[in-house]
Design brief:
Helices cover 29% and strands 22% of the residues. It is built from eleven helices and twelve strands. The mean pLDDT is 89.
Length: 328
């Protein structure tokens, strides 16, 4: 069963200089009990995608076409605000990048965890017990005592774990994690990854994990979706994406990962050029202006090429294998 299915989603924003086409024909699935990672440079459309799923696009943004199906039945693009509000929390939860921004600094953690259970018909004592249980699940020491403390009395890592506990309070079918490890140091980052894996296995939810950190994606996710300038350029299993990248952008992205540098250097590898102006999208391959392997045929619209076992690439040269490092 598929928890979330996105089919040819197009999102635009109205600007003074004309419409900005932020997402173009985005398609991928989040299967049941799987962790799917979305990776790409800043400006690739990750945040726009999250807001489109949650029904939280800015006033100047709108979905032009496409479908977002949840649990095989609900078409999120057709639901009213009240219907979306009913889904957010109990069935779709979100962990944001900044835990301090997600927690109210003047309300105790316990009160916040009780307040978010407002839809539940349980007694207050039952809600308190549930809050304690969730804090214990995310390994907060002295969980009952922690309910009386305020966010500023916790470290950054603990605040992020509390945010995760709150997001999973109602055991949703889908958890959207928006770069939840970015503000953490390396040790806490590893602990958070292990925690998410453990909770996902116990609760049985699907996770859509957004990050620009390739190491985290490789460690946590079952499947990977690579985005560039609002388009999905490659998708497949984590093993396929990291061991056999077929889109030039994916290969260059992996090549630029500092963790892959085996020798000391003053000049880290980069991808030359800039992301195109999304108000004037090129008609052909969106990456062609920055690609060292481009052909004349790249000026024409590109379709996804299936390589088997769910590995799909939007590139005319997708069937030609290359190793990371061959793009220099």
């Amino acid at each position: 069963m598929t928890t979330l299915a996105i089919d040819r989603l197009n999102v635009s924003f109205s600007t003074e200089d004309g419409p900005l086409h932020a997402l173009k024909d985005v398609s991928f699935d989040v299967p049941e009990n799987r962790i799917v990672g979305i990776v790409g440079e800043s400006g690739c459309g990750k945040s726009t995608l999250i807001n489109a799923i949650l029904g939280l696009l800015a006033d100047n943004g709108h979905i032009e076409s496409g479908e977002i199906r949840f649990e095989g039945k609900d078409k999120l693009t057709t639901l009213s605000r009240d219907q979306m509000r009913a889904l957010r929390g109990p069935r779709i939860s979100t962990v944001f990048q900044d835990p301090m921004g997600a927690l109210n600094p003047v309300i105790s953690v316990g009160k916040q965890m009780i307040n978010i259970q407002y839809r539940s018909k349980c007694s207050k004592a039952q809600k308190v017990a549930r809050a304690v249980e969730m804090l214990q699940r995310v390994r907060i020491p002295d969980a009952r005592d922690a309910l009386n403390r305020y966010p500023h009395q916790f470290s950054g890592g603990m605040k992020q774990r509390i945010a995760i506990a709150m997001a999973l309070m109602m055991e949703p079918a889908l958890l959207i994690a928006d770069e939840p490890t970015t503000a953490l140091d390396a040790t806490l980052e590893v602990a958070t990854i292990e925690l998410l894996k453990d909770l996902q296995a116990k609760i049985g939810c699907s996770i859509l994990f957004i990050s620009h950190h390739l190491g985290v994606i490789a460690e946590l996710c079952d499947d990977v979706v690579v985005m560039y300038a609002g388009e999905v350029v490659e998708r497949g299993s984590t093993r396929q994406i990291f061991n056999d990248p077929r889109h030039p952008y994916t290969a260059r992205l992996l090549e630029c990962d500092p963790a892959r540098q085996s020798e000391r250097t003053r000049n880290l590898p980069t991808i030359p050029g800039e992301i195109p102006d999304l108000r004037h999208r090129p008609t052909g391959c969106i990456f062609s202006a920055r690609c060292s392997r481009r052909l004349e045929a790249c000026a024409k619209p590109q379709s996804e090429v299936g390589l088997g076992n769910g590995h799909l690439v939007r590139c005319i040269r997708a069937t030609t294998p290359h190793s990371v490092g061959a793009m220099a």
